[in-house]
Amino acid sequence: MPDHPALGQFFTPRAVIDFALDALAAFGAEVAGARVADPACGPGEWLRAALERGAAAALGADCDPAMAGAWAASGLADEPRCSLTVVDGLTAAALPEAGCDLVVGNPPFGADLADTGPDALRELARGYRLPFPDRAERLLVEPAQRDLSRLARYPVELLFLERFARLCRPGGRIAIILPEGVLSNSRWRHVREWLLDTMTVHAVVGLPRSTFRAHGTTARTCLLLVHAQPPAPDHEVALAEADSPDAQALATLLAELRAGAPHVGDPPP
Questions:
Q1: pLDDT value of residue 263
Q2: How far from 224 is each of 21, 70, 126, 188, CA to CA, in Å?
Q3: 200 forms bridges with which residues in the sheet?
Q4: DSSP string of the chain?
Q5: What is the pLDDT of residues 15-28, one digit of tens each?
Q6: What's the maximum distance between 2 C-alpha atoms anywhere in the chain?
Q7: Any residues with CB less than 8 A from the CB of 202 and at least 6 apart, and which?
């Protein structure tokens, strides 16, 4: 099943998914027995990988109706531990908030909500904080037109970052792929401040441009590994760069990440 760049879809190579889950486990996540969610799951490869590691439940949502056929063809739709729904994963009703041990995935990027109807935009404006750093009470009652216009232009990947955080239980873990500009562009400083104030970022791993080349983009992306709890005063974020998206190179990187971060491997709280 091909991905759809027009929807911001660029499906993740399996080696990168395995690396992300292995890295989360190295930082203390328990994948076996976990309740795992992906609110933009595409064909479901992140969820499949978690189930293969013994996850107790896998919850997925995707707005693309074509994904239902992919789930059926791969057998994922028949997996009893898996619940998959064709629905916009940004909506509050899509998946249970604060109900998952792990929230993982590669949400759409390079897109916005310009084609979203006003009613749906109003509902999103009431629920999301990042597009409105100076949030006013009116957003909870009746968002103004300027609020809806701002939200319509807001990068969808940043909304998904907030969504991942909302789905994760306190103390849970997040692995998310984002465009590198989220962590460097001055325009998104408020996003970084929110992230570093509210959660413990284990590591930021730069992915090579070749990671998604087969899917039509050479955009620079990074993998963010996060613990959903406030950071300790002396916390340091591990920074790493992957030379290649193949399994051998990523295994070497994981070993280097372990060696350079003494707290890696601590048991989960």
A1: 45
A2: 12, 27, 26, 15
A3: 227
A4: ----GGGT--PPPHHHHHHHHHHHHHTT---TT-EEEETT-TT-HHHHHHHHTT-SEEEEEES-THHHHHHHHHTGGG-TTEEEEES-TTSTTTS-TT-EEEEEE----S--STTS-HHHHHHHHHH--TT-TT--THHHH---HHHHHHHHHS-HHHHHHHHHHHHEEEEEEEEEEEEGGGGT-GGGHHHHHHHHHHSEEEEEEEEPGGGGGGGT----EEEEEEESSPPPTT---EEEE-S-SSHHHHHHHHHHHHHH-TTTTPPP-
A5: 999 999 999 999 99
A6: 52
A7: 23, 27, 225, 226, 227, 237, 238, 261
The token pair at 77 is: 């739709």
